[in-house]
Amino acid sequence: MKKIIFTDKAPAPIGPYSQAVLTGNTLYTSGQIALHPETGVLIMSDIETETKQVMENMKAVLDAAGMDFNNVIKATIFISDMNDFARINSVYSTYFNEETAPARETVQVACLPKNVNVEISMIAVL
Hints:
This protein is α+β, with helices and mostly antiparallel strands.
């Protein structure tokens, strides 16, 4: 059985997908980009600010499912330029304890939705 997770504290889906789906004790999130949930404006002044908005959006989705970053077991980071990796990682790492951080991959892609620089999705368990 699956439960659709939705919060107005993260950007609303703009297509046929959910912010996250909980099945059993496992949460699968959709990718988050740096859309401000209240204004719908992309926050892209610099890569650190953009990454922080992505992580805050993800935090809101996890919270809506009764979870937090401690529940995350896997993260996927899609970036448009691998040269931004260290700067993205510097923000991302503030949301996790290094000793218990989730598994992760980071992939450079040709293009992301709305031409953003970073998109992150996660899998979490209760």
